[in-house]
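ESCALATION

Customer reports they have been waiting on this structure for their group meeting. Please prioritize. Original submission:
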Amino acid sequence: MRSLRRLAAQFPVLVLARRNLSRTSARSVLAVAAVVIGVVAVGTIGIGGEAFKQDQLQAYEGFGGTATVSPVIYPDSGPEDRTFSETDLDRMRQVTQGAVVLPVVEEFTPTVRTPDGETIPTARVTGIETPGEFYDPAAGELPDNWRRTVVVGARLANEHDLAVGDRVSVRVDGEFDRSFRVAAILEPQGFSDPLGADQTVFVPLSQFEGDTYDQAIVRVNGRTGSVDETKRRLESEFNDRERRLFVDPVQEQRERVEESFEAINRFLIGVGGLSLLVAAVTIANTMLMSTVEREGEIGVFRAVGYPKTAVVRLLVAEATTLGVVGAAIGAPLALGLGAVANEVLVGDPLAFTPTGLRYVGLGMAAGVLTALVAGLYPAWKAANKRPVEALD
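Update from on-call: job pushed to the front of the queue and completed.
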């Protein structure tokens, strides 16, 4: 206790500030609450946004060293120009020199029915040879050689109670209408997945009788080549006269998605930061009311030689104390809510990223700075009042 008193004696302004704030405890509590709300808003949105970004970017983990290759479709393109042929795929394999070229067939208007006969209107059907190249199963096993089984995306399975071993019927007009056993349910991939896996039923490519493909996925061995060089070779081979194909490295897709998430997160944090303006108004109002009520006290200080700067320092210290207390309470609350967001989105409550933690620090700094700035005008106004007027 003595050590605390000696420490307090080193900061008499803070002792006076605490005493003055405790005299108007209700107003002080409201001002602190406003700062807490602002700090929690900025910190929680920052951590939650980072967790959501991590959740979505997990979809790209299986696509390392890959690029999606799509035909460029013009308004006057014929059917043969909207897809790739076997000849096109062979040219890709020759040009890319050892890269794996996987053809993909996509059907956006199939008819998929559950074992109960329920139609799933949002389902997509994708024909691909080896889904295990890109995805991990949450249940079941991804087959290496498959003919009469399918692999179902996580969202479809959850929304329609599909499980491994169930039989679903899939009809693609002009191609096939068959019943398949569900071999595996995929891990959730998020909406940014290059193949939209969550809403997709993956079927064996052999189910499609045609010899044209909607796109191709090129996978490059990082030890023997690079995606950028593969992209250059493909574009040089196919886009000599007119642009026939579009090569989009998945890493670049990932970076674009990441930039988009960061922009959205900054915008939301800015919106959350508006609550700190409310805190500033609350603190300014609290300090103005306090200075009006304490005009006589301040007048006595000034009359006995208390300088203006001392009055300003005392009142700014009071306002800053409100910000410091609000930030100290708001930060752990933001971390707690952020842990909940981490648990829900990435399955680990402690999966804080450095960027997410920086947002908490930013919220704390903004809370303290807001309180300090909000206290300047009331302090300046009180300090510049003549002692005679204050004592009148």
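Sent to customer with the following note: The chain is about 55% helix and 15% strand.
Escalation resolved.
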